[in-house]
Prior knowledge:
The complex is a heterodimer. Chain A contains 21 helices and 2 strands. By secondary structure, chain A is mostly helical. Chain A has one domain. A two-stranded antiparallel sheet of chain A has the order 1-2. The longest helix of chain A is centred in the last third of the chain and has 32 residues, at 324-355. Helices cover 73% and strands 1% of the residues of chain B. Chain B has 19 helices and 2 strands. In chain B, helix 3 (76-103) runs antiparallel to helix 4 (108-126). At the A-B interface, helix 5, helix 6 and helix 7 of A face helix 16, helix 17 and helix 19 of B.
Amino acid sequence: MSDFPWLDVAIFMPLAFAVVIGFLPKGNLALLRYAALGATIATFVVSLGVLAYFDAGNSGFQLGSRAEWIPEWGVGYITGVDGISVWLVLLTTFLTPLAVLASWSVTKRVKPFFVFLLALETGMLGVFSSLDMFLFYVFWEVTLVPMYLLIGMWGYSNRIYAAMKFFLFTLAGSLLMLVAILYMYFAVGGDPTFDYQELLGTPLALDVQRLLFLGFFASFAVKVPLVPLHTWLPDAHTEAPTAGSILLAAVLLKMGTYGLLRFAIPLFPDAARELVPLIMTLAIIGIVYGALVAIMQKDLKRLVAYSSIAHLGFVVLGMFVGTIQGMSGGILQMVNHGLSTGALFMLVGALYDRRHTRLIADYGGLAKTVPVLAGVFLFVTMSSIGLPGLNGFIGEFLILLGTFFGYSWWVVPATFGVVLAAIYLLWAYRRVFHGPVTNEANTTLSDMNVREWLMLAPVMAMIVFIGVYPKPFLDRIEPAAEKVVTQLRDSSMIPGQVEEAVGP
Amino acid sequence: MGLNTPEIELLGIAPEIALVIGALAILIVDAIIGDSRDKWHLWMLSTITLGLSIFFAAQAWGTNELHLGDMIAVDGFATFVKITLAVFALLTVWLSRGYLHRDGIEESEFYALLLFAVAGMMLMASAADLIVVFLALETFSLALYVLVGFRRTSLAGQESAMKYFLLGAFSSAFFLLGIALVYGAIGSTQMYGSAAEGASAQGIATTLVSLPAGEFTLLVIATGFLIVGLGFKVAAVPFHMWTPDAYQGAPAPVTGFMAAATKLAGFAALIRLLDAILFPLRDDWRPMVIGIAVLTMAVGSILAIVQEDLKRLLAYSSIAHAGFILTAIVASNDRGVSGSLFYLATYGITVLGAFAVIAVLGGRDERRTKVDDFRGLFYDSPLLAGALTLFLLSLAGVPATVGFVGKLVVFGAAVEAGYSWLVVVGVVASAVAAFFYLRVLVVMYMQERREGAELVVPDSSALGRGAIAIAAVATVALGLYWSPLIDFAERATFFFSVG
């Protein structure tokens, strides 16, 4: 079964199901929901095939396929995963069914909702699996449209502004990337091609590299987001429906960090190396700034949104310190953040379903009325803070360790960020769940139901699993991480130096 | 000494002749049949005529000659443009049928004028003499002036027709002056000149080859005037003033036809003139075209943001698109020529689709063309909203639609020619432009129909629906697999470089 195209089937399965759901009767809510749930679970099962046949010792791309698309232009359908993208593919397929479960509260226009959600899943999986720049760009942009509609059609009061801002910020960045891709296309020499593996190792002068790197960086830095390009994120996360917030935080932001790893560093290593201090500074500003702003938030969703800025700062920091620990930690932390923040958005969504408010001040003393929900919330909060034994600790520890090896003093402000994370999350937790029940409306809330258990239990299991036994993850991440670290530290694409640097 | 009579080879202009005969036939048949109840013979005859015209145009595929005293070029470039024009006209005829019928203004003149306009535009594509370019320009412009004001009872229609006519006449004068200066510079208005040994006729191309560089000041000035004249037709800034008014006042199918076909005809002449004939003078005209391109992209994208009327919004968007095509002309390489052809063909289909949807939704006498009138359209008629979404996303250049491929190829041509900075300007303009396309999506998907606003009841004919469906399918299908069309455009370019 190892020649079965697990990856390609997983990419296009959600889209195929989206078309099927498009033909179901729009009045039958239960049918639509279970169809969407079934579709996403089936996709997850197929993606497990990708994991099962993944060869951990191989640092190259695997399990993909290669077909001609527009041969005259050197555009191909080329897919494949390595130790970095395989986890992001699985994260996507793992969280989408849970996002579907979190969408039971959607009662208006249910059919288009699930159609867009499934189309979004295909886009996200495509981004993580494409090895052709053209294909990558198509998937990259295609994810924008369903997410835009999800935010704009099912979001909260300020949804249109948020959707617009989300789309335009991302589009502006990606268009600059498009120019850089076009430049690469003609610079490769010989027949122009968009094949990523052929573009790797294109010799480019340093000043050209710098401009092209910035073109790619513009696109990815908006997506991550790095301060000061982050302003779309709090709006989009806050206004999106729960499923949208989950996928935005857990998967879409990772497209940015993934892009840096997959394209920006390997294609332009000299420019990347030169810009490391700048990027690390931005990352640390993100860590501290995101945390400080999160402390002051009155809105729970906004608080989680700002915490994402801080956490993604850690990921970028780890990726650019140029040590294997930092890189592995950064990659693992992408998955960790997806799980923890995804779960936090599920929980905030659950609270919203009960009380129809996101303001921290409207809650208080919920631990008395919904003790189980409070317990789960605490568990997920601890994972996000980085309590040892849970997943967040492994990632953050590796990143800090790697930073210490690479740039010893830079670790100080970064560690400060961990402390701040504890402050904003625990303080918010205290205000929501502890103390006396001050608001009459909070006395009659119901505790977690079966559906909510179904969506949170798998995440909690993964949180513990990674926290206790991260070896299977790190084993697969490390070969790919090592390759990127080598590229960042040693390889050179400047003409004349290419031969010595690029190995076979 | 015998009189040197030119050899008459009518096959070279067979597509145009077919159209003119067809148009006359429509007028006569209508006069004979008179008021038949649903006038199906009008669109039927137009369809047959356009089909014949495509057939004749396709016959010329593979030839590369000058006909009729070196005044008509029959080459791949002209063939591509002619076939594309006829396809645009076919779609226009189909979508006009229901529109005219609904508004009670279905008359034979409409179809006849449309066919005359197409004939003029086709002539424009194969003109190899500046006088012929001028004749062609006037032929289709006169037809369009009438078509723009075809809703005789509409005040806005009258106003826009008048404006279009006055400014059009003004720009024709510039073009004529350019022709006169060319004649003053080289003593001929021919573009290519005769290839025959010892022929009396000099052309621009032959002159440029034979004379040393640096003696063409007058020709460069003339080029400037010619660019102004054609820049008006393609709606390039600062010659775009007529566009928003004419687009808004004209009947929606005519607007779609103008956006698609006038642009194609104007650019066909411009491309032949600049990228083939005046190619040796590119260092002189490039700065002009670059300036116009930058202005066009910027002004079109920025002014579209504040528009409240969807037709007006698309008018500014069409200005911005002219700017994108100009970047490929600046590149003036093979990829630029084939890229512009591809862009024009696909932009035309997309924009025709968009105006087809507006024609259907506008209701009788086009009462609903404000962006705000489309509130909640997705919930009332999801299919039409979906089609309009596709067209708008394609105009915005989102991947998986053909608009993205078009942008990629024209921007690619400019990057290849070393104008990356111009492409950066282009993508910034596209990012700005995305805003107003998205605004239409916001209205259709994210806002509910106003209390008391009338329900949009699409009342299109099956023919109109068919035109929309064809355009929508083409937008996606060519966006995912564009090999056949780009291959066609590239081979058209291959024939195009006539010595």
